[in-house]
From TrEMBL:
Mitochondrion as UniProt keyword: no
Occurrences of domain OST48 N-terminal (ranges): 28-275
Compartment(s): Endoplasmic reticulum membrane; Membrane
Protein name: Dolichyl-diphosphooligosaccharide--protein glycosyltransferase subunit WBP1
Taxonomic lineage: Eukaryota, Fungi, Dikarya, Basidiomycota, Agaricomycotina
Protein source organism: Gloeophyllum trabeum (strain ATCC 11539 / FP-39264 / Madison 617) (Brown rot fungus)
Transmembrane portions of the chain: 408-430
Length: 446
C-alpha cells in the first residue's frame, strides 16, 4: 500500500511538472492582428499549450480581456503578433506595456516594416530600426526563395538556445542595438545581408558608397540583430522579433536544404522559454553573516572583526517546476561598502554544499554604516541583487589589547628607565660615605 501511494505521489508530481513551466505563471494573452490567422501559427501555439500554458486570444481593438485591471496585470505573459497594427484599444498603450514589464509580466513584440506604435516603442529599448519599408535582404546563399526570405545560422554557444540547431528561416526587418547592457541578442543578421526598399540590385551603388564612408547610413552586416531580448532590472523580460513569420508553420516545416528541416520550431520555443522566465532564472534564497567561530549574525560589528558572509542561490528547473540549488556561478563578487566599496572580494561556491557561496574577510579599520552588497548581472541571466546594512563601531574601552607588539620598543624604554632610576636611588641612598667617616675618626683621635 505504501509503495502504491509513493507511485501515485510521483505521478502527481510529474504531472504538475509537465504543465507548470514558467516561474511566474501560465496565463498568456495573445493579441493577434486581424490580418493574421491563428492557424498559421498552430505549431507555436500548440507547443505552448502542450507545456501547460493557458492561451487567451483577442484582437488589438477588443476591450476584453484587459491586459491590466486596477493596476494589476491580468496575465503572466503577453504576445503581441501585431506587426502592422496602428490602432489599439485604450488598455494597450506604450506606457501600459512598459508598466507590464515593471510588474514582472513578460512580453513578446513582433515588429514589421511599417511605422507602428510598437516600432516607436522599440526605440525606448535602445533598438534602432531602419527607415520604414526597408526589410532585410540577402542574395546569399543561392536558393529558390525570395531575397527577403533568408536562412540564418543560429549561434551554438548561447546559453538560452538549444545547441546544434539547424538554420532558421527569417523574413522581416533588422535593427541596430544601442549601448544598453540590458539587451540580450539572440539572432543576428547574416554578414552579407542589408536593409533596402527593393529586392533589385539597383541600389548597390548606394551600399558601396555608404560602405566607403565607414558604414554611415548602412543598415547591413552581422552587427544588425533580428531577434533580441530585453531584461528589466526588476526581472521582467521582453522579446523583440523583426518578423512574425519566424513563428509561422510555413517556416517551421520548410527545409533549409534537402532532408534538413529548419530550426524555427525549436528556436521559437527556446526564445519563448527565455521570455516567459523558464530558462536562465536565478534567485537568492537566503543570506547570512556572522563573526568567525560564531553562528548568529550580530546587530553591529567591530573594526577588524573577521566576518563570514554566506548566501544561497537557486535556479529554476522548468521540467520539475521547482527551484534547485545552483553552484554554477564562478565570477560572483561581494562588496562591503560605505558610499564606495571598501572591500570587493570573490564570492565562490562552497565545495560539497550545492547552492552555497561563502567568503571570509576582515572588517576594515573604519567605523560607520556599511552594506553587504551582491550585485550579479550577466546577459540573459536573472539579475541577482541583495543588500544588507550593518553598522561598524570602534572597540569598547575594555576591548582594546593590553599589549601591542609594535609598542615593545616603548615598553623596553619605559622599563629600562624605571629600573635605572630605582638602581640609582638605591645606590645613592645606600652608598658608603668614606670621607665623612674619616673626618669623624680624626676628630675622635684629637
Amino acid at each position: 500500500m505504501f509503495r502504491i501511494c509513493q507511485l501515485l505521489l510521483l505521478t502527481f508530481c510529474l504531472a504538475i511538472g509537465s504543465y507548470a513551466r514558467s516561474s511566474t505563471g501560465d496565463s498568456v494573452l495573445v493579441i493577434l492582428d486581424p490580418s493574421l490567422s491563428k492557424d498559421n501559427f498552430s505549431i507555436f501555439f500548440k507547443g505552448l499549450e502542450e507545456q501547460g500554458y493557458e492561451l487567451t486570444f483577442r484582437a488589438p481593438k477588443d476591450v476584453a480581456p484587459a491586459i491590466m485591471q486596477d493596476d494589476v496585470a491580468s496575465f503572466a505573459h503577453v504576445i503581441l503578433f501585431t506587426p502592422e497594427t496602428k490602432t489599439y484599444a485604450k488598455d494597450i498603450t506604450p506606457q501600459s506595456l512598459v508598466d507590464l514589464l515593471s510588474k514582472n509580466t513578460n512580453v513578446i513584440f513582433a515588429l514589421g516594416s511599417k511605422q507602428t506604435p510598437l516600432t516607436s516603442l522599440a526605440y525606448e529599448f535602445s533598438l534602432i530600426l531602419p527607415p520604414p519599408g526597408t526589410p532585410l535582404i540577402s542574395h546569399f546563399p543561392e536558393r529558390d526563395t525570395p531575397a527577403t526570405v533568408i536562412p540564418i545560422e543560429v549561434p551554438s554557444d548561447h546559453a538560452a538556445l538549444t545547441s546544434g540547431l539547424s538554420p532558421v528561416w527569417y523574413s522581416g526587418v533588422s535593427f541596430a542595438l544601442g549601448n544598453n547592457p540590458l539587451l540580450v541578442p539572440f539572432l543576428n543578421a547574416p554578414p552579407e545581408s542589408f536593409a533596402a526598399d527593393t529586392t533589385e540590385d539597383s541600389g548597390a551603388d548606394a551600399l558601396v558608397e555608404a560602405a566607403e564612408k565607414g558604414g554611415e547610413g548602412l543598415w547591413a552586416g552581422k552587427d544588425m540583430s533580428v531577434v533580441t531580448g530585453f531584461q528589466t532590472i526588476d526581472g521582467g523580460r521582453a522579446l523583440f522579433v523583426g518578423g512574425v513569420e519566424l513563428f509561422s508553420d510555413e517556416f517551421a516545416k520548410k527545409e533549409v536544404t534537402k532532408g534538413v528541416e529548419a530550426g524555427n520550431a525549436q528556436f521559437a520555443r527556446d526564445v519563448a522559454a527565455w521570455t516567459f522566465q523558464e530558462s536562465l532564472v536565478l534567485r537568492v534564497d537566503s543570506l547570512m553573516h556572522h563573526r568567525v567561530n560564531e553562528t548568529t549574525p550580530r546587530d553591529q560589528y567591530t573594526t577588524n572583526d573577521r566576518v563570514v558572509y554566506t548566501t544561497h542561490i537557486s535556479k529554476y528547473n522548468p521540467k520539475l517546476n521547482a527551484w534547485e540549488p545552483y553552484s554554477g556561478i564562478q565570477d560572483m563578487q561581494l562588496e562591503f561598502t560605505m558610499l564606495d566599496p571598501h572591500i570587493r572580494t570573490a564570492l565562490p561556491p562552497v565545495p560539497g554544499s550545492p547552492g552555497t557561496y561563502s567568503v571570509e574577510f576582515r572588517v576594515p579599520d573604519r567605523h560607520g554604516v556599511f552594506k553587504f552588497v551582491v550585485n550579479y548581472k550577466r546577459k540573459g541571466w536573472t539579475h541577482l541583487h541583495s543588500s544588507t546594512t550593518v553598522p561598524v563601531v570602534p572597540p569598547r574601552h575594555d576591548e582594546y589589547p593590553r599589549f601591542l607588539s609594535a609598542a615593545w620598543p616603548y615598553y623596553i624604554g619605559a622599563i629600562s628607565t624605571s629600573a635605572g632610576f630605582v638602581l640609582f636611588s638605591a645606590l645613592w641612598l645606600a652608598g658608603d660615605d668614606r670621607d665623612l667617616k674619616k673626618k669623624k675618626t680624626a676628630k675622635a683621635t684629637e
